[in-house]
Structure formats: C-alpha cells, structure tokens
Design a protein that fits this description.
- There is one protein chain.
- With 330 residues, the protein is an alpha/beta fold.
- It contains twelve helices and 13 strands.
- Helix 1 crosses helix 6 and helix 5 packs across helix 7.
Length: 330
C-alpha cells in the first residue's frame, strides 16, 4: 500500500455532519482543505479544525459548472459529500446528486485532479424504488463513466454527536407517548460511526490502491429498526409505546409532512424515506468495507451514550441507565 503526498483537497459539502469530521481528518493528515459550500459564512467555524490558514471555506453551488471549476483550481484531490434527504422547490435529488456529481467529476478530469472520492449510500441503485436511492445510483454511474478511478463510499446510517437519526427519535421520545415502528420495525441497519466514515474518506484520498474501488461502510453489528428504538429508550431512561405503523400509513403521513419542505423546513418523514425503509440497509456479504481500508469499526453502544445523555431526565447529572442496572445486579 502506498499513499499520495498531502496537498490541496477540495471538499464539496464539507460543512455538514459528515463533512465537518472529514475536514478534521484531512487537516490532521497535513492537507490544505478548501471547503466548497453554498453559504461559506456558515462554515467559518471549520477554520479552527486546522492550523491558521489551513482550512478555507469558499462559495460554491455544485450545480454550477463554473463554481465547481473555480473550487477545484489548483486542487490535487476532491471529495464530494453533497447530499440532500428531502427535496425543496429550489433543489431536488436530480440537481443535487446527479447533476452536481457529474459537474464535479467532469471538472476533476478537466483540471487533472488525481483523486475523487464520491459519497454515496448503501441502497444506491438506478432501479431503487425511492428517488433518493435512485438518484444516488445515477450519480455513481455518472462519476464512474467520467472518472473510472474515483473511489465510491456507501455508508449505512451514520451515527454520532449531531446525527439526524438517533437524536431525532430520542428527541421524539421526550415529547411523544409512542414511537412509530414503521413497517413493523423489522428493517435492518448497520450503523456506522461518523468518525470511522471520516477516516475512510481521508484514507480513500491518500491511498493509491483505493483507486476505482467501492467500499460499503457499516459498523460491527446489525440492528433492526425496533432494536435501535429500544436501545434509545433504554439509554435515555424513557418508557414509550412502540406502535407498529404499516408502510402504507407511513407513506400517507409522509405525503402530508412533505408540505413543510416548501418552506425549506425538514419534514419529519417523507414518502421517499418510507420507501427506503422497505429494504435492509446493511453491507452486502461480498462488498469491501472498513476493514479493506484497515479501519476497525466502532460499535453504536461505544459512542451513543456520549450524546444521548441530553435526553435523560436530569440531563448530564442523571445516572446512566446502564450504570443503574449494573448496580442493581450487585
């Protein structure tokens, strides 16, 4: 295995949940990082993740070829993390995922950028039922056609402080008497820690042997949707009813909830998210994963308590439910 020498890397969408950790991991390796985002004023806090002048936020709309070309000027590598979970009148899956990814790949080829890392998702498939998965699959195909040596990363659901999955249901449990078991809660996930995803991104940028490969990123354990909700309730010390919600009913709720997207407000649920829940979100048996990048996966239970405490009654001063159970067993 050999690694490329750090230079300048452009990270598209680097101010998000995964992007922040990826920028940190790249900066630690000595890369100068150009963070290309639509609103650079909101990404200024990323500067403190590296040395003075090492991290530079710049304005870039990934759907604009001119913006993308400018963001890649002088870059040695690029990482595309741009992704949306719901559509708005101003931005849809096709524009953000397919058109944007195509622009980045074409600009990389034109500028002679050596390495491109494309963030996708497990379940990305041009034949997927949901538009999210379908557009992610189309984005992969576009990138591969333009830049065959690009590295594609497909994570399962990503957890960590600030995630939109565990935090969402933990917050819901503080207000609602019940949590929804969409589709009966049987859908399987392989939650992967955001720190491991960031490390996979950083290694994919520098490792020459990663060229042209696709890695599916999952944690060490597979959880059902029901098991995850049960774990959240245990860890936060909440007793809530887990109410089965058939897919057709969840889809109807998603249709109504999507109305908020017109105002740019994230819906609590969308029809597309319901469609994705119909298929297990786990690493396929023959796929290359974190171990292929020499990364030991971190389990959910090793990290989640470090931020789920805020949803307990008493917050950080409340005793950990796990510690209480252990004491009771003595």
């Amino acid at each position: 295995m050999s690694e490329s020498t750090p230079g300048l890397v452009t990270v598209f969408g680097g101010s998000g949940f995964v992007g922040t950790q990826a920028v940190r991991a790249l900066a630690r390796r000595g890369w100068r990082v150009r963070v290309a985002v639509r609103k650079p004023a909101l990404a200024q806090d990323l500067r403190i993740l590296g040395d003075v002048g090492q991290i530079q936020p710049v304005r870039c709309d990934i759907t604009s070829p001119a913006d993308v070309a400018a963001a890649l000027k002088g870059a040695n590598a690029a990482v595309n993390l741009v992704g949306i979970l719901f559509e708005t009148p101003a931005r849809g899956f096709q524009k953000a995922h397919v058109e944007g990814s195509r622009n980045v790949a074409e600009a990389c080829v034109a500028a002679g950028v050596g390495r491109l890392v494309q963030m996708s998702a497990i379940g990305a498939d041009i034949h997927a039922e949901g538009e999210y998965g379908r557009s992610k699959g189309e984005a992969e195909a576009a990138v591969r056609a333009i830049k065959p040596d690009a590295v594609i990363l497909r994570p399962s659901i990503v957890f960590g402080n600030g995630d939109g999955f565990l935090n969402r249901f933990a917050s819901m449990a503080t207000m609602s008497p019940a949590l929804p078991l969409i589709g009966g809660g049987v859908t399987k996930f392989q939650p992967v820690w955001v720190g491991d995803v960031a490390e996979a991104i950083a290694r994919s940028v520098v490792r020459t042997d990663a060229a042209g490969r696709t890695f599916e990123l999952g944690g060490p354990e597979v959880w059902s949707f029901k098991q995850i909700l049960e774990y959240i309730l245990r860890e936060t010390g909440r007793r809530r009813l887990l109410a089965p919600l058939p897919f057709f009913a969840a889809s109807a709720i998603g249709s109504l909830a999507e109305i908020t997207a017109v105002l740019g407000i994230a819906p609590v649920l969308t029809r597309d998210q319901v469609a994705m829940l119909k298929t297990d979100n786990v690493v396929t048996p023959d796929a290359e994963g974190l171990s292929a990048l020499d990364i030991e996966a971190t389990g959910l239970e090793a990290i989640a308590p470090s931020y789920l405490w805020r949803y307990r009654r008493g917050g950080q001063f409340a005793a950990s439910p796990g510690a209480v159970q252990a004491e009771a067993a003595l």
